Amino acid sequence: MRGKAAAGQAIFLTGFMGSGKTTVGRLLAHLAGYDFLDLDDLIVMRAGKSIDDIFVESGEDEFRRLERAAVASLRSLARTVVALGGGTYTFASNREQIRLIGKTVWLDCPFDLCLSRIEDDGSRPLLRKKESLRSLFDERRNSYRLADYAFNIGGESPDEVAHSIAIMLKSKGRLE
Predict the structure, then answer these.
(1) CB 85 within 8 A of CB 67
(2) Residue 135 within any structural domain of the chain
(3) Is residue 5 part of a domain?
(4) pTM of the model
(5) Which domain holds residue 157?
């Protein structure tokens, strides 16, 4: 934990693909009376094409450039829950920007649960490399651990997770 944040700052959810960032984020935003933003949706809107198309046509480096620009554009964001892409928080420049805007919550979800949630999702370009997915998961955990707060995901429903995170953030003075 990196200290108490003022209520009203943005809340960023980080974690591996399939950890529940978007689903839990929407529910948490509703509970908190905050807006919700999915960073991947913002990138798709700005690029005018799907993430998969960005990866195929321009490569991961271009996607990451678009992702950095999207994070930088959130500087004045407040009272919003943001679901980050699975790789967003692994880049130091993104973490620095995010720390200026709000606080992060890592949805620490076991690999097998993440995989079960996403294995049939054809819209995820990194799923094409299933043989290296476990090592990517392990590698990214080192960055996720730098989040302000961590929440272990198990068998709870998304509603239960969102409610528990809201209670945790309220107890830390993060939510009104």
Answers:
(1) yes
(2) yes
(3) no
(4) 0.89
(5) 10-171
